[in-house]
Amino acid sequence: MANSALPEGKQDEPEVIIETRELSRVYPGVMALDSVNYRVYRNKVNVLIGENGAGKSTMMKMLAGVETPSSGQIFLDGQPVTLGSTHEAEKHGISIIFQELNLFPNMNVMDNIFIANEVFQRGRINEAWQYQLAKSLLERLELDVDPLTPLGELGIGHQQLVEIARALSKDTRVLIMDEPTSALSQSEVKILFNVIEQLKRRGVTIIYISHRLEELMEIGDNITIFRDGRFISERNVSDASIPWIIEQMVGDKKKHFDYQPASQGECVLQVEGLTALHQSGGYKLNNVGFSLHKGEVIGIYGLLGAGRTELFKGLIGLMPCQQGTIHLNGENIYKASFQARLRKGLALVPEDRQGEGVIQMMSIQSNMTLSDFSLQGFRRAWKWLNPHKEQERVKSMVKELAIKVSDAGLPITSLSGGNQQKVVLGKALMTNPQVVLLDEPTRGIDVGAKTDVYHLIGRMAHQGLAVMFSSSELDEVMALADRILVMADGRITADLSRQQITRERLITASTPQD
Does residue 97 contact residue 176 with C-beta atoms inside 8 Å? Predict the structure, then answer.
């Protein structure tokens, strides 16, 4: 297909505010963007989609001044511009909300909103003015939080809204949103969509990246598709369909997932009465109990705040529980440390990939072997690193998980979100676990990478591992699970076999009851 950015079937083309011409970005051994001609239309919601590694985030980083092109040009209002930093991009009116939170949990909400963009009066920060403006922005997002609240006390969904409030506090002409709803509840997504409509009415142009196709069809005006670092196609959203989008995204690499249940063995994990309390009162976990067998895949479904993440952290030992029992292969590990539970066969892939899953200053290889280092898995008897064994194991895991990387010694940040997630999965598998806990394992990754994760879950079950995963996507949890546990208010409200699962039952059980 020709590398043209003219929308298909479009007669009267709207005004272009940003245009790239032959834009390329090369990393060591990787062509992230290859001579891309891309257009952003003024006062529209410009949807950009593609598999992880397609070049979406790389393009956005260059438009936001985070990275510079290897070749090609960026035009703003028809004039060539050089965007050498985020500050320079913001002077041109371009702001970005990153997929991974870029906030400071030890600071309060107000200071996070105005950091590096403070309001000064007579040489001092006008905190009274900032407080009122922050309060107004939070009210606009229907977030009932005092601006002086420490950010670390908020859940990840509310932190995402604070990130959006920070972008709205600037004089923005073009707002880039990279997976802004990945951590939001359905009600918060509706609020965000209302804010986007308000911004459009005020003349703000939106670039919107998401892997939720129904969401794109609802909010977008036009859609652009990248694949393998190249521009593929563009259409009005009104002229597009989900099958067409998927076809353009994957090309001849179409992937399918067919559920094949594994043979189940003896009970490997038995939990009874697991209870954890909030410091402010109430329950994080309320008398949770279930069993998990070898070869079984259990899906955990629930709304934001239902207790899914708390359950996984309680099981792995990262959150204190006040009572209950956790039997792994018949042994009560309730009082065991996190390290001890890891050694005994529990492994966790956390929801917050950037905050808890990877160490950004380290290489791909070092990130993948990090957990196994704590078990001395690659060390000789005299405690020195065995580099050959490490490299061979990592090379094997990279191949098994189909991680797109030319050199495992590159920084973890050189990978796309989907490939970073595979590294986190590989890190968990490096510990040779018996029970694998996956907290939102497909959050923020594309259709192709999701399918890879689905196949991996199936392989783990067929290899005799016991798997639990949480998901906020109904279709996903229904497609993958042998059994679904529904949570609400820290309790298990339903335990449904595959034969009992219906959308209505899941939705009803996930709704908190007064």
Answer: yes
